[in-house]
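Exercise: predict the fold of this chain.
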Amino acid sequence: MSEVINSNEIKHELRAIREDLDFIKSHMVDIDSILTEEDYLSLQEYRKEKDFGILTSHEDLKKELGI
């Protein structure tokens, strides 16, 4: 049995899909903004090293490596 295609119904469905997509897009989380536990621990370690002054600057590292 063939099905009759109702263009108004298709338009309605497409609008609903578009609204759903707009909602999803506006509520998506940027994956790059999420810290993993490993990221968090690395950040904590960096802050401790910075506070204790034991970091090597980029310029000092280049001198050490002869670059």
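Check your answer against the key: DSSP finds three helices and no strands in the chain.
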